[in-house]
Amino acid sequence: MFTGIVEELGEVTAVENLGDAARFRLRGPVVTQGAQHGDSIAVNGVCLTVVEHEGDEFTADVMAETLKRSSLGVLTAGSRVNLERPTAVGARLGGHIVQGHVDGTGTVLERTPSEHWEIVRISLPGDLARYVVEKGSITVDGISLTVVDAAADHFTVSLIPTTLALTTLGLKQPGDPVNLEVDVVAKYVERLLGDRAQGAGK
User: I need a surface site. Which of 12, 50, 94, 144 has the fewest CB within 10 A?
Assistant: First the structure.
């Protein structure tokens, strides 16, 4: 489990095409401290497994399904990425519960800067709109954020200078894709209420 509090802005150093998969080599001095084969590291919000670790770099294999359903497929050598290790049991939950399972992708539509923050508008797939509510939580490229406004096809988030400086959202421009993970609690509530309604109808 992750919390959506990005630990560092890492970098893709190499991408190897494996046909039905890809092997990524990524640099992250913070997240590689003590890393071992089989450990999990979230890359732009996608939970990946460490295959190899050497120095401040690690490799991870990404299946074709993940490349198709996330924005990892557009990454190339030199791309910057958000990195986070799983939260330790008993640690503070600084963001919200994040699984590292991307529900879909959105596109940065608009950036509106102001003196002390920036409003970013992001497109929202129709099948995810019911899980996104004003003042609720959403994960964008692995970053735990609070929804400012929510509509049927888009939502906005407000970014403070720290987020702009230390995550990929400071670099994303209109037209760029981002990974989205909605609040898992909303999905469980929907399922439970749906099962209850079906039971009542029997």
Answer: 94
Average pLDDT over residues 25-45: 96
Q: Which of 189, 74, 195 is nearest to 141 (CA)?
A: 74
Please tell me the distance from the alpha carbon of residue 132 to that of residue 14, in angstroms, as a whole number. 35
Q: How far apart are CA 119 and CA 74, in angstroms?
A: 24
Nearest alpha carbon to residue 23 among 8, 4, 6, 43: 43
The answer to whether the Cα torsion of 62, 68, 71, 77 is positive or negative is positive
Rg (the chain; Cα; Å): 17
pTM of the model: 0.90
Q: Which two tokens stand for residue 137?
A: 């939580």
What amino acid is encoded at 176 in this protein? D
The model's pLDDT over 90-126, given as tens digits with 9 standing for 90+, comes to 777 777 888 899 999 999 999 999 888 999 999 999 9
Tokens of 177: 């894709």
